[in-house]
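Re: [ENG-882] Designed sequences occasionally contain unexpected residues at chain ends

Forwarding the minimal case from QA. Structure tokens:
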């Protein structure tokens, strides 16, 4: 387990500098609170990084844990009004103004947090141009293009997790992110 932990941290460090950072939306507003548990797979520059993820999105902060399959923290990313902080498995911290630039610096890939807090609910980021490329039979967005990113969705059945997204594929200029959501809570703890 320790070998896997250090391998993952080493892979994250090795990926540094591989993705381009796009401008961060400043006026999108915050999405309603939620708490999700799932898995993430990131492809950057021919490399792949995967982890379990726990994301608690509150009215005033985001806290994201990247975890091993046994639940040990590999990295913790927190963003609030004062900025963003990433804590690695060995408890080293780095800080930055926004999660987008900090994740690129520390992990080697951009986590488009300002956008993702809206996309994860199956909605476009407000106040920014969006192209809805495809909808399903129920009218839910199956694919959108916004701010240089393409987002594709698969949803839970309407009777499960209120029909919220269960799987997302997010493609940027030099990276892709697959987010599979196993558990949804509409309110963060």
């Amino acid at each position: 387990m320790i070998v896997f932990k250090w391998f993952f941290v080493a892979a994250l460090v090795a990926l540094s500098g591989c993705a381009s950072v796009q401008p961060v939306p400043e006026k999108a507003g915050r999405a309603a609170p939620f708490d999700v548990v799932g898995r993430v797979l990131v492809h950057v520059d021919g490399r792949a990084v995967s982890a379990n993820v726990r994301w608690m999105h509150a009215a005033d902060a985001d806290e994201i844990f990247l975890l091993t399959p046994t639940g040990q923290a590999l990295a913790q990313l927190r963003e609030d009004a004062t900025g963003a902080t990433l804590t690695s498995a060995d408890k080293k911290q780095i800080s930055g103004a926004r999660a987008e630039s900090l994740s690129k610096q520390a992990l080697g890939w951009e986590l488009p947090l300002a956008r993702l807090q809206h996309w994860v609910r199956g909605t476009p980021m407000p106040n920014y141009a969006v192209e809805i490329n495809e909808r399903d039979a129920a009218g839910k967005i199956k694919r959108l293009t916004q701010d240089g990113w393409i987002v594709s969705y698969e949803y839970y059945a309407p009777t499960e997790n209120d029909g919220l997204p269960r799987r997302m594929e997010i493609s940027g200029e030099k990276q892709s992110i697959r987010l599979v959501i196993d558990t949804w809570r509409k309110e963060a703890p």
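QA comment: On inspection the terminal residues look reasonable. The radius of gyration is 16 Å. Proposing we downgrade this to a documentation issue.
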